[in-house]
């Protein structure tokens, strides 16, 4: 009996010591967890800022190429088969698509809204021509990346639009689930 009392007392003492230690360290643990959450949010915010900055830089570079035919030659990925005026239109189409892609990736547009944007852009013959001409470029994207998946979604939508036997283009295709 005495041994059980000693063991029970030791167990209670150990439990009490653990509770006291946790009570003493709880504010520090809570502060550390809050600090980690703050740092994680700061990192997410910095990624969003970096992403927006990159989008702005992309637009500035494309704008320079659209304004200067000599700079546009640097971006000629069509082996000289696209005349300079058409290439500037393709650069602008790329800027529009990339803007929507970034808007989606930032969380400012749903997948369904992106789908609707693509469906309306594909009504434009120049955008459609750009989309066909840039197919080899999209083929180089990693198969599981978000950009590759969205590109395939637009490719599929284009096929559906071409096969549709109705004039109401805005109802063609099934908007994807989020």
Description:
- It is a single chain.
- The protein is an all-alpha fold and 178 residues long.
- It contains 7 helices and no strands.
- The longest helix has 66 residues, at 2-67.
- 13% of the residues are buried.
- The model has no long low-confidence stretch (mean pLDDT 86).
Summarize the structure.
The protein has 178 residues and is an all-alpha fold.
Mean pLDDT over the full residue set:
86
Radius of gyration: 28 Å
Net shape: elongated
Number of helices: 7
Main sheet attributes: strand count, strand direction, barrel closure: none
Beta-strand content: under 5%
Indicate the percent of residues in helices: over 70%
Spell the H/E element sequence. Answer: HHHHHHH
Q: Roughly how many Å apart are the termini? A: 65 Å
Number of DSSP strand runs:
0
User: Low-confidence parts lasting 5 or more residues at pLDDT below 50?
Assistant: none
**What would you call the structural class?**
mainly alpha
Features:
mainly alpha; 178 residues; 75% helix; 7 helices
Secondary-structure blueprint:
Elements lengths: L1 H66 L1 H4 L11 H22 L5 H11 L3 H9 L1 H4 L7 H18 L15
């Amino acid at each position: 009996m005495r041994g059980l009392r000693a063991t029970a007392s030791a167990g209670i003492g150990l439990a009490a010591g653990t509770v006291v230690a946790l009570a003493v360290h709880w504010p520090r643990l809570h502060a550390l967890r809050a600090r980690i959450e703050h740092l994680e949010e700061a990192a997410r915010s910095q990624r969003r800022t970096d992403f927006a900055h990159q989008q702005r830089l992309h637009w500035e570079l494309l704008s320079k190429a659209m304004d200067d035919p000599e700079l546009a030659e640097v971006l000629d990925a069509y082996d000289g088969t696209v005349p300079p005026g058409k290439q500037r239109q393709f650069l602008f189409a790329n800027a529009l698509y990339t803007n929507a892609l970034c808007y989606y990736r930032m969380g400012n547009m749903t997948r369904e809204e992106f789908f609707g944007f693509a469906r309306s852009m594909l009504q434009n013959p120049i955008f459609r021509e750009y989309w066909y001409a840039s197919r080899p470029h999209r083929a180089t994207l990693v198969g599981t990346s978000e950009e590759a998946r969205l590109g395939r979604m637009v490719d599929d939508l284009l096929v559906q639009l071409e096969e549709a036997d109705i004039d109401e283009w805005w109802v063609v295709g099934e908007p994807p689930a989020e």
